[in-house]
Every structure is written in structure tokens, then in C-alpha cells.
Specification:
With 522 residues, the chain is mainly alpha-helical. It has 23 helices and eight strands. It is elongated.
Length: 522
């Protein structure tokens, strides 16, 4: 029984429970038929101090859950990098993948661990100059984005395809057994509808590369690249809970063979406390029982020597990145990307980019699948931020879920009454493709689906002549500039295939005083 209750097994159980909690919250982050979410997975982001710090630096504002991130900071100062070793779901997945390689791989060069600190310096310095790029590499944001845009849609598609094939073929009448199982899956782990994302494959491949690096070296991402791990490593250098080694140590090196953070626990001169993940593997494996973790005088650790020039270079790179990413014609008022339609409640574009951490939660909860990750529509600074693509899905008139899950306030939480007054764009009619305008054929779909109480699309009864000279009465649609909110349902439902006859542009959005069709009246 004692062998089963080793610290290593307790840690593995704890990691498994936190991973299951993450997956549970992730699945729960979905509409259940009403406009309220129970337990969104943003809870993990709320405990992320790197997200909080970067948001404060970039937007000069405290994120909603700042106090929760302080819990992680206090826990790190007291107990070391327990978040990395016991809680982080991405760390757990890296651990699991690394365990698939039975033969111990050769360790990477020792000094590679410095890279994550250089990445941290780069991200924080760029945040000081209002560039919010942390979410691209923050482990929790990265994991949620990868699951939302790639892993979960692929899982849903594969499961549905499998059960559909079994039901269609029904070998030996097995469908009688599989259909109840399918019903249980649909009511528990499967999404309400199948989602598709334009960058699903690309983001999924990046995620696989990150996990695959653990086959080169266990927890490669955690040791060498994770900026959150670097921040927690700095905070853990004076942790109250510390590791000590008694005089009974024979320098056998057993502890180094199981160290998950490559902290060099077998070295008396080069022990790196900032790299210790508090996995306690060294305590379990020590044949002399010489390793102990407790609240006492910490063992002397080697200084965090990153090299002054390298740190300065990383900081300079963070400064240079700001103008480099923003020198784009898209920043000009008269050259804004008309297809860049942000979710309702989004802050003005500059403020939005200062806060958005590209976590993908708003895309996951979008009930029409209309929110998609950008690539270059908002420049490199806005990569993987949300954009509404009406041809894929519209903005549901009575839905405010995207504002409920945003962890940094880039998308404000709106009431249904507030949302009804928010304009995210303006519909335009392509008369060369519209059936009543171009071909004298009746069509009223856009007006029928328009959700505003007073229809934003109205008709003009006209009489036109066809090719044979016969008079035909048709209703030609027009868009009311004051009533249209740019929800995009008219574009989604337009029966003209390919390029629709009515389309939505970001022009006229409430959040911008510049991106307007008509000059304001004074």
C-alpha cells in the first residue's frame, strides 16, 4: 500500500484530476439552450498571472479575475512551481506524450532552458509598449485555442462519422448497441453541432509539434519554451517550501535521471531551483533517502544567469516588434479591412488588440460557428483573434455568450437589450447578383430572416421588363442604414451561391467613430 501512495503517484492523480477538470469545463463552455454559461473554461485563464500582468501592461487596466491570478502567485512563492508540476493541463499532456518513449532520449543542451526567459522578457517588454502577444505562447491560452479550433472539432467529426457508418452498415445488428452509446455521448461530451474552422488544420499541426517535442525530450515545452513557466520560475526562487539534501548523498545521479525540470538536482554547485517543478521524483527514487522537501533553510541554488547582453537583446526585440507589427496600411482609417467584423461588445480595435489573448473561447461558444480565427485580416498583431465570417455563420440576435467567456474584457459582457443596439457592421446589396435587381426574379429571403424588430431590409415595389418586353412586378430590397446591425444572417441565408448578393462589411460598427459610411452630423 505504501508503494502505491508514493508522492509520484499522488502527483499523477492530482495532474489527472486537474486535466479532467479542464476537459469538463471545456465541454461545459457551450450553449445549453439558453444565454447563460455554467462553468466556462476561462476559469483556468483567470488563475494565469502571465495573462493578468500582460493585460495590465498593455491595456493599463486590471483584468476581471486579477485576484484569482494572485492565488497562483502566492502558491508559487510559498511552494515553488507546483502549478507547473501538479496543475497545468498542457504540462500533463506533455508528460503523457513524453512517457510514450520508453528509451530515455538524450537531453538537450543545458542552456536551452534560458530561451523561455528570453521569450518572457520579449513578451513583457512588448506588452509595456501596448503589444499584446502573450496569448500566442501562453500555455493555457494555447491549449484552449488548440482544443477549440482543432482538437475538439476533429474529435466530434470522427465520433459522429464512426457512429453514422455503423448505423448505415449495421453489421450483425450492432446498431442496437451503438445507438444508446451514441445518445449518451451526444448528451455528455459531443458538441451540439459540428464546428469547422478555416485554420483548424494549421493550429492543430502546431499543437501536435508542441506535444511531439516531448518525444525529443520529456516536457520540452515546459523546460525550454513556456513563458508562464519562466515567470513562475522567477517567483519560485525564494520559495518557502524547499528541497534539501543530507550528507548521506552519494552523488549517484539517480535524481537527475527522473527530474522533470532538468534542474540538475545531483549537482551541489549548479542546482537550479527556478527549474524545479516540485514533482518530488528525486525524493522517491533516492536510494539513500537523502532528499527531503520541507519548510526550512533552502539549499543554495545557482544564480539565474541569463547573460546581460541576451536579456537586453530580448528586451530590444520586444520594443522593435511593436512598430514592426504595426507598420501596416490596415491601421489607416480609409484602408481598414472591411471583412474584419468583430464580435458584438468588442472594444475599439486598438484597445481590443491590447486585451485579446487569442484563447479562442469566444469562437467555441459561437452557436452558429460564425466566429473564426483571423490570419492576416488584422495584421500579424491580431493573428488568431476572432472575426465574424457571415458566409459561415451569423451573429445570433439573442446571444451574448462571447462576452461571457472573454477573460480580459476585450469583448464586453452585454445584456440582450444592450446587444440589440450594438452595430458590428452594415449589409450591402450587390445589385449585379441580387435576383430581383439583376434578373427580375422574386426573392425575399434577406428580409424574411432579418431579426431586428423593425426590419432593417425593406422592399421597393417596382415594375421592370424582361427580355421579351413583358412587364414584371418585383420587390427590390434596400438596407436601412440606421436599423441594420450587421449581424450577417442575410448573407448567411442568401440563396445566391458563391459570392452572395448581400454581404456585410465592418463599416458602420458602433465601436469606431472613424469606420463609418456617412460623416457625423454636428
Amino acid at each position: 500500500m505504501q508503494k502505491l501512495l508514493t508522492t509520484q503517484n499522488i502527483r499523477r492523480i492530482t495532474q489527472g484530476l486537474f486535466l479532467l477538470l479542464f476537459l469538463f469545463l471545456f465541454i461545459q463552455t457551450e450553449s445549453k439552450g439558453n444565454d447563460e454559461l455554467g462553468y466556462p473554461v476561462r476559469l483556468f485563464l483567470d488563475f494565469d498571472p502571465l495573462i493578468s500582468i500582460s493585460t495590465m501592461l498593455a491595456a493599463h487596466a486590471l483584468p476581471v479575475a486579477f485576484l484569482l491570478s494572485l492565488i497562483t502567485v502566492v502558491a508559487t512563492v510559498l511552494f515553488g512551481r507546483v502549478f507547473c508540476g501538479w496543475v497545468c493541463p498542457l504540462g500533463t499532456l506533455n508528460n503523457m506524450v513524453g512517457s510514450l518513449r520508453k528509451r530515455k532520449p538524450e537531453s538537450m543542451p543545458v542552456k536551452w532552458y534560458r530561451w523561455k526567459y528570453f521569450i518572457l522578457v520579449f513578451l513583457l517588454v512588448s506588452s509595456v509598449f501596448t503589444l499584446q502577444f502573450v496569448g500566442v505562447m501562453d500555455p493555457l491560452s494555447l491549449l484552449i485555442r488548440s482544443f477549440s479550433v482543432s482538437v475538439y472539432p476533429l474529435f466530434n467529426y470522427a465520433v459522429r462519422a464512426y457512429f453514422d457508418v455503423v448505423y448505415a452498415v449495421n453489421p450483425l445488428g450492432i446498431a442496437l448497441l451503438t445507438e444508446p452509446v451514441y445518445d449518451v455521448l451526444k448528451s455528455t461530451v459531443l458538441s451540439f453541432g459540428q464546428s469547422f474552422y478555416v485554420q483548424g488544420v494549421f493550429i492543430g499541426l502546431l499543437f501536435l509539434v508542441i506535444l511531439g517535442l516531448s518525444l525529443l525530450e520529456k516536457r520540452f515545452w515546459c523546460k525550454h519554451l513556456c513563458p508562464l513557466g519562466a515567470l513562475l520560475g522567477v517567483l519560485s526562487r525564494r520559495a518557502v517550501l524547499s528541497r534539501s539534501v543530507s550528507e548521506g548523498c552519494t552523488s549517484c545521479g539517480a535524481c537527475a535521471s527522473v527530474c522533470q525540470g532538468n534542474a540538475q538536482p545531483d549537482s551541489k554547485e549548479h542546482w537550479r531551483i527556478s527549474e524545479c517543478l516540485m514533482c518530488w521524483n528525486c525524493d522517491d527514487i533516492c536510494p539513500e533517502n537523502a532528499v527531503r522537501f520541507g519548510f526550512g533553510k533552502p539549499r543554495p541554488a545557482s544564480p539565474l544567469d541569463l547573460g546581460r547582453r541576451r536579456v537586453i537583446a530580448a528586451a530590444v526585440a520586444g520594443v522593435v516588434a511593436v512598430p514592426l507589427l504595426r507598420v501596416t496600411p490596415l491601421a489607416q482609417a480609409n484602408s481598414k479591412n472591411p471583412a474584419l467584423i468583430r464580435p458584438p461588445g468588442s472594444l475599439e480595435e486598438k484597445e481590443f488588440l491590447k486585451r485579446c489573448v487569442k484563447c479562442g473561447e469566444c469562437m467555441k461558444v459561437c452557436i452558429t460557428n460564425g466566429l473564426q480565427p483571423t490570419f492576416m485580416e488584422a495584421g500579424l498583431e491580431g493573428i488568431w483573434s476572432p472575426v465574424l465570417v457571415p458566409r459561415i455563420g451569423y451573429c445570433e440576435y439573442r446571444c451574448t455568450l462571447c462576452g461571457q467567456v472573454c477573460p480580459t474584457g476585450a469583448i464586453k459582457r452585454l445584456t440582450l437589450e444592450e446587444k440589440a443596439k450594438v452595430k458590428i457592421g452594415l449589409a450591402m446589396i450587390d445589385k449585379g447578383r441580387c435576383l430581383p435587381w439583376a434578373h427580375s426574379r422574386p426573392c425575399i429571403v434577406c428580409e424574411e430572416v432579418c431579426p431586428t424588430p423593425k426590419k432593417a431590409i425593406w422592399f421597393e415595389d417596382v415594375k421592370v421588363k424582361d427580355r421579351e418586353g413583358r412587364t414584371v412586378a418585383v420587390m427590390q430590397p434596400h438596407v436601412d442604414l440606421e436599423l441594420c446591425i450587421g449581424c450577417g444572417i442575410c448573407e448567411t441565408k442568401c440563396p445566391v451561391l458563391g459570392r452572395p448578393a448581400i454581404y456585410v462589411m465592418s463599416l458602420g460598427e458602433s465601436r469606431s467613430r472613424e469606420n463609418q459610411l456617412l460623416m457625423p452630423e454636428y
